[in-house]
Amino acid sequence: MNDIFKALNDGTRRDILEMLRKQEMTAGDIADQFNISKPSISHHLDILKRADLVTSEKKGQFVVYSLNTTIVDDIIKWIITLKK
């Protein structure tokens, strides 16, 4: 759970999740939306993957990233239990 909150603690990573909520994207497509280096985007994607918030799949010569909605559902359920 700590990895999840660490990943969510950064605005760029939250922006990446928002983009992936709408559609799958390659790292290059994601990087094109930011004014930071591609290695920095790769670092952000690695943190999101370690937190299991995104998944990646090799499609031809590209790696396509998508939002892992299962873990998002788990986080929401956990947060709701805090209110009880």
UniProtKB/TrEMBL annotation:
InterPro entries per the UniProt record, alphabetical: ArsR-like_HTH, HTH_ArsR_DNA-bd_dom, HTH_MetalResp_TranReg, SdpR-like_repress, WH-like_DNA-bd_sf, WH_DNA-bd_sf
Residue intervals of the HTH arsR-type domain: 1-84
CDD domains: HTH_ARSR
GO molecular function, one term: DNA-binding transcription factor activity
Keywords from the named record: DNA-binding, Transcription, Transcription regulation
Gene3D superfamilies membership: Winged helix-like DNA-binding domain superfamily/Winged helix DNA-binding domain (1.10.10.10)
Record-linked PANTHER family: TRANSCRIPTIONAL REGULATOR, ARSR FAMILY, TRANSCRIPTIONAL REPRESSOR SDPR
Full protein name: Transcriptional repressor SdpR
Gene: sdpR
